[in-house]
Amino acid sequence: MTMTSFGGFGSQQLSVHPSLSTLIPISFAAFVLCYIAFNLVSRRFLRRRTKRFPYPPGPPSPSFFLGHYGKTPTRKPWFDYMEMGKMYGELIYFRSLWDNILVINSAQATNAIMERQARITSDRPFGNALDRFTHWDDQIGLVVYSEAWRYTRRTFHQNFRSEAAVKFHPVQIEKTHNFLRSLLELSESPCSDIQSHGDELINYISTLSQGIMIKSVYGLEIQSATNEDFPKAAKELTSLVDRSLLPGGSAYRSVPFAHLLARFVPDALSEFARAQKRMRETMDILREGPFEEAVKAWKSGNRSSLVGELMSQNEIQGGSVEEVNRIKNMGSAALAGRIFTFSYNTQTIH
């Protein structure tokens, strides 16, 4: 950009080169405007070209452009949806950015829609470029239905079905005994601070829950869920992903250039980019860290891990890279599923 300054009897040419910190907000604003324009035009075009049944009733949209983005319930949302159900019925409609969201608000409607019509309703709204960047597409619970999903699900089912899970009973008994001893020690300790005792109790329950899974799948021991790397990473992942799994929480994934913002925008300029990069790092820690530890332990003589057993079988059969990825995905899904279940269960009692 060239600026001309007139002063006194002459003129002076001043060349100004915009910095990266100046260009990024301008580029982002341009992207947002283009997205909004495309959104409006395509919506108007689609409404003219297609005939659709009306959506179910729902709360009025607070914004024409954003819909209910950022306005859907996030703190104990089941209470809010229960109250909304009294006004709007079993099906509640929201629009968040590009996403049309339908909240199913009763067991009867859930069975009718998700079970009886599973062929057309039971897929997952993931699998875009941002999911590939954050490695969400490695998680069996989040990936769209595909051949890769079927193979990973088969590996998961073969090793965690009720008949196969019998081999994990000794680990469950051992960890339960440790948990009961910890409870006994806690009950005998002086109760000077009820809050600290409550925190210790939650830590013991979390250590039991995650300890069983980590020992069964990876053959690794943990002493505390609050002080060791893998449980801490699982807990951090829960806090990062928690809101995204709620209705409307992942609508930003429908923005076509969201993965570019996450990849190229400096962390200091964008909380969104920082959170997505941290999610990617945490996913990698959970997927690669315990897997590498389990393989190392298996090679050194520790034969107590499911991952080590599956890797040994894979090497005998030729060492398929695809099978290695399925084993990694199975292990990280089991660990993440355990911490998510624990987190949601404790939310209901807090």
UniProtKB/TrEMBL annotation:
GO MF annotation: an example: monooxygenase activity
Family the entry assigns: Belongs to the cytochrome P450 family.
UniProt keyword Lipoprotein, yes or no: no
Pfam families: p450
Cofactor(s), names only, from the UniProt record: heme
InterPro entries: Cyt_P450 (IPR001128), Cyt_P450_sf (IPR036396), Cytochrome_P450_fung (IPR050364)
PANTHER family: CYTOCHROME P450, P450, PUTATIVE (EUROFUNG)-RELATED-RELATED
Transmembrane domains' residue ranges: 20-42
Keywords: Heme, Iron, Membrane, Metal-binding, Monooxygenase, Oxidoreductase, Transmembrane, Transmembrane helix
Protein name listed in UniProt: Cytochrome P450
